[in-house]
Please model this.
Amino acid sequence: MSLWEEIHQQPEVLSRILESNRASIDYIAGRLRDHAFSYVLIAARGTSDNAARYAQYVWGSRNQLPVALAAPSLFGPYQSPPQLDHSLVVGISQSGESPDLLAVLSEARRQGRPTLAITNHAGSPLAAVSDLVLELHAGPEGAVAATKTYTAQLMAVAMLSAAMDQDPVLTSEELAAVPANVDTVLAGSEPIASAAAAVADVDRAAVLGRGYHQATAFEWALKLQELAYLVAQPYSTADFQHGPVALVEPGFPILAIATEGALYGDLELLLGDLRRRGAEVIALSDHPQCPADHLMGLPVGMAEWLAPIPAIVAGQLFTYHLTVAKGLDPDHPRGLRKVTRTL
Amino acid sequence: MSLWEEIHQQPEVLSRILESNRASIDYIAGRLRDHAFSYVLIAARGTSDNAARYAQYVWGSRNQLPVALAAPSLFGPYQSPPQLDHSLVVGISQSGESPDLLAVLSEARRQGRPTLAITNHAGSPLAAVSDLVLELHAGPEGAVAATKTYTAQLMAVAMLSAAMDQDPVLTSEELAAVPANVDTVLAGSEPIASAAAAVADVDRAAVLGRGYHQATAFEWALKLQELAYLVAQPYSTADFQHGPVALVEPGFPILAIATEGALYGDLELLLGDLRRRGAEVIALSDHPQCPADHLMGLPVGMAEWLAPIPAIVAGQLFTYHLTVAKGLDPDHPRGLRKVTRTL
Model:
């Protein structure tokens, strides 16, 4: 299946996950309550690592769980792995095959820690070494660049948060609205295509997001690198202000995700400042006054914590159109295979 | 004091820290033994966040301590901070003034967790909210871009690891060799200056390192962004292979740090492969056969875990020379102040 088709499958995939995964996620949340753990260690690479960034914010802010992103090389090459007392160890991987993630989960199991795999392949080696398996049911992903498995991972992370949550009615409604919001993004993609065409000559950019959207910034940047060969560097907006803001000269391209919520005001101030310095700002926002040279609208009324799902779909569309505008082939990125095995 | 002078002060600063900080670091290590904690949560921004990355590998591999890098916005804007049971919470900051780091340390203290500040300013707000303070004694840093306070932070992280270590004689010898290795880098800087001059026209690059040198890659990239306005994107080599490797076309600049140790063989294979794809490889290495178009030698015989200190000094020199070769002023980077306060 082509990248374009998989991008457009996402409302259907997300609806299916909402229906068919609820019972298994409730079961996993129940099993997790049996274990005493104080923090979560997540092992992941590439796109799945961006789902881990999302989990860091969602589980951190909604479930008060500190989340650490593992340094897998501590578990393989250096051969003196950390002591994982009081941890829950989670592996996130589309294929469930990368040896470095297996090393983290295997060591966790050896130390007697509870382990959870979030994967599209329940028969994978990662699932085999995990106590609990959250199978994504996103269907086979044919394109080299991950799209539907990323939004499926975010949905699984969000549903697991909801299953551990105190306010199940509200969160159920919020989760149920996600597929329709993704549909809205897909149906109104013309401003996205024209923004992409307008910046087709750029070869470098910064991608800014914060909080829940730090994951969106990192995943959007990764798609831009893989498909449009753009040196697109993602930053939390706070980190960007600690040095890299020096990059901004007249015409410097800034991509940003700024949706309503606790951090919107900060983003708005920063983007206004960057425009005064001459940056060319391309923004994804649900706010009609978001300061930008090219504003790509997102659906209004999204729950703040779930906005990264519709937002990255807009980022995928932007990347697709930019790739085509550059005369590149989104289904055959240079030098990549679907499954990457690192040690 | 100018950036050039502060880069060259580093052997003296590191020697001073080795002498004058040993007693206080032994005291802190002793106090930490009184506390039960299973993991370390570090809050830091910018250059200090790269010292936190170094701590993740050093404390992880040498002291078996898992290290999590905090998401400070969970502690401020989202107002429902994670539960920090079983953590030691560490703030790393040159100035000790950024409000987002203060929010993390204050919340940790409110929850009754042990807190440690690593800062150049013992009178700072960060130090005031911390149980334990490791003062860097790096002397005042005048240049906007941090150099000597970064290597001072790495040295403090390394000395704290040694103070918690089982093999004090060997580690003392290894630590004592660091200032001389930095001296060697500073004395033999001509190949670095000529490599920088050879690539003065590039405006984008990837910076690769792994393990202990993930910190080196991130800090080198940050200097290149701040001073030479290069969109220099840092990656762990494993992450780079999960997608971003698609960026590589003939002439694409790759900066890499590859020193002897558990991960050298992997790096050598990857750099050879990238050269076959036509990348222009600029490498910092202590290995004379490291595959590179421009090889900048590092001292031989460095302890693997301490190599990031001499290596980043070479990266600072490269950045300085590149900045000057581009006709820019390394003492006045565009749009930056010395102390950045983010919320």
Chain A touches chain B through 72 residues (CB under 8 Å). The two ends of chain A are 29 Å apart (CA to CA). The CA atoms of residues 4 and 320 of chain A lie 8 Å apart.
